[in-house]
Amino acid sequence: MFPELEHIDQNWLQRFRRNVRTWYSKHGRNLPWRQSHDPYLVWISEIMLQQTTVVAVVPYYERFLKRFPTVAELAAADEQEVLRYWEGLGYYSRARNIHKTARLIVNDNQGQFPDDEELLAKLPGIGRYTAGAIASFAFDRKAPIVEANTLRLYCRLLGYRGDPRSTAGQRLLWAFAELILTRQSPGRFNQSLMDLGATVCQPTEPACPECPVRNCCQAFANSEQTVIPMAAKKPKITQLTDVAIAIDKDGEFLLLKCRDGERWAGLWDFPRFTIDETVRKASLSRLTENTKRRLETQLHDATGIKAIIVDRLTEIRHTVTRYRIRLVCLQAEFQSQSRNPSAEYAWIAPGKIEDYPLSTTGRQLAELLKAPVTLEKGNG
Q1: Containing H/E element for 319?
Q2: What's the pLDDT tens digit per position in 128-163?
Q3: In which band, very low, low, confident or very high, does the pLDDT at 320 lie, cut at 50, 70 and 90?
Q4: What is the CATH number of domain 3-221?
Q5: Whether the domain at 3-221 and the domain at 238-370 fall into the same CATH topology
Q6: Which of 83, 216, 322, 369 is placed for a possible disulfide with 350 were both Cys, Cβ 3.0 to 4.6 Å?
Q7: Is residue 99 within a helix (H) or strand (E), and if so which, with residue range?
Q8: DSSP 8-state class, residue 309
Q9: What is the pLDDT of residues 41-91, one digit of tens each?
Q10: For range 297-325, the mean pLDDT
Q11: Which of residues 109 and 342 earns the better pLDDT score?
């Protein structure tokens, strides 16, 4: 027994569960994936919601399900098409894993999802939380769940000041999640806890006066809502400067398929590389002839293609995990090719690039090439 759970008795549980149910009946979110208990729909929504907000997920979810309405149709699709429909959601390993899982379910399990947490957790891309969510929401199994919103809610309810992401913290929170879960409609009860964390027990400025379980909350009683839970350690941010080069060869542009182990593995992108320190210190706002020659050499070393940089198209700032990237997009004219690029490649007209799954920045550059633009002349 955990010391943090010793104060919880049947009276506490009954009051807590009753108040949560009453609140959810009035304030629960009406989300598209909650209209069905189909495990396929539950699974897709839960994978999409990893690292992504509800607001951002809804249009992607609806578009994805329109194209792949069943696990069989997803399994039968080409991975490139799956990635194309995932484009913009990021964390593309999720898309590759759902494609693998769909094929396993169709080929090895006659298209039926397992309803057991342990079996679900053995599938690619499905961890403990997602397995519990599918078992709970689709099959109404009494499966505890801990995710970002309930982690915060549980820490405050228990007044837990330790690290909730540590082994000890995780054991406590999963034990608490199992303790409070109801036998009757556990899936609905889990959804109510997630909604309570998402809409009331927010990371900053939690709406404690509106919380139905504030009288059960140790953090509220001790005025510790702003310090619980312990904040996650922020990763050290690394600043990078990348260059992407659109090489024009008779109106077609070179795309490379990102390989396993690279960022955006499985997607396509324009030739792109992190520039060396010497070039990084040079001005990329107005390219000097010396800087152009250095970049042309890097391009040739990376792809075997000799090209002449002619224009600076745009600059994009973006963040990928712990990297904050300045991406300078250039246009070059093809001259010759001494060898094939080491990655899978294709020369594609701008109007047909939309058929390929690209990174978000790659798509921005592709759209720029499609549209009539005034290029930044005179950069030398």
Answers
A1: strand 305-320
A2: 999 999 999 999 999 999 999 999 999 999 999 999
A3: confident
A4: 1.10.340.30
A5: no
A6: 369
A7: helix 93-108
A8: E
A9: 999 999 999 988 999 999 999 999 999 999 999 999 999 999 999 999 989
A10: 92
A11: 109
Which two structure tokens, joined as six digits, stand for 64? Answer: 């994805």
Element (H, E) at 334: strand 323-337
* Domain 238-370, CATH among 3.40.1260.10, 3.40.366.10, 3.90.79.10, 3.40.50.150: 3.90.79.10
Q: Which residues are catalytic?
A: 46
* φ/ψ of residue 106, rounded to 5: -75, -45
- Joined tokens for residue 118: 């342990």
Query: H or E element: which one contains 330?
Result: strand 323-337
Give the pTM: 0.88
Per domain, the residue ranges of the chain are 3-221, 238-370
Q: What is the DSSP string of 236-289?
A: PPEEEEEEEEEEEETTEEEEEEPPTTSTTTTSEE-SEEEPPHHHHHS-SSS--H
The tokens 């010759």 sit on which residue?
336
Tell me the C-alpha to C-alpha distance, in Å, between residue 377 and each of 244, 268, 309.
18, 28, 11
Cα(336)–Cα(208) distance, integer angstroms: 66
Token pair listed for 370:
């499609």
